[in-house]
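Below is how a single chain appears once it has passed through the pipeline. First comes the sequence as given, then the structure the pipeline wrote out for it. We keep one example in the README because the format questions we get most often are answered faster by looking than by reading.
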Amino acid sequence: MSSLFPSKTPTITLLKPTSKAVAKTDSTVMLIGESGTGKEVIARYIHSQSLRASEPFIPVNCAAIPQELMESEFFGYVKGAFTGANSQGKAGLFEIADKGTLFLDEIAELPLAMQSKLLRVLETGEIKRLGDTSTKRINVRLIAATNRDLKEMINQRQFRSDLYFRLNVIPINLPPLRGRADDILALAQNFLEELNEKYLLKKRFTTQAIQALLNYSWPGNVRELRNVIERMAITSETDDLYLTDEYFESVKNELSESARMKMKNNLNYKGALKSVLKRVEEEYIKQVIDECEGRMTEAAKILGIHRSGLYRKIRKYK
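Resulting structure:
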């Protein structure tokens, strides 16, 4: 069954038009998408196809670093810089990633003070360890990622606009996995091959498993896909993998039941076609606005209409 899939390194369809152009440069990339859509997978793919592929790829979750330790973690420190510091000093993440790629996930979680320091590094290409008097040149390719609306954060003075424009050189929007059938297969095969290599297995997907992968909606995106593949590969007693309901997340049945109830309710329309279509439009607009948490520009984009047109429809339906 593996012949139905691409090579071991997944060719992400989102990047096919621009993958070579993006990867072969040092341009800063901003990955934008909801949680679990595979931002780190994309970042690693860009690095693997770049001229820096033989150099370090350093992933960092900005939300996981305590605020008081951020500067020392990012830029390092010298001997005796502060109480409790390593007696030999320590290299920061930028130094460790020198000549390679630094992936800053959840970039929106950086406090304003750290945003200012990051901006200076991007502008000068220099870092200074805590407690040091001299600077050091570094050569790092930066990829950032977020699941938040940075423009809205700028309006609320929670994110620096100058840093945003430094980071948003090449924005790549990652839609939910359910809308990327080719990526589902590529990623699934990649995850399975990693597991086969790690545990010396010879697992392979059956046609049934492939169809089940494509039919599922993947509410947990790439993270859920990885979990399901690992669960299936480890617990299956045969090399031929069949994907049944038991391998999906426990919320699947609840989601399916909710979806069935919603479909049933939506089919309870009566009256002339014109009035039914009006009601369907109204309900769908409300659903999209709710999913976008009130972000009208994003909602209008999903609906395929201009934002002013969306506001007109909102007034129309009160």
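The chain has 14 helices and eleven strands.

See the next section for the split statistics.
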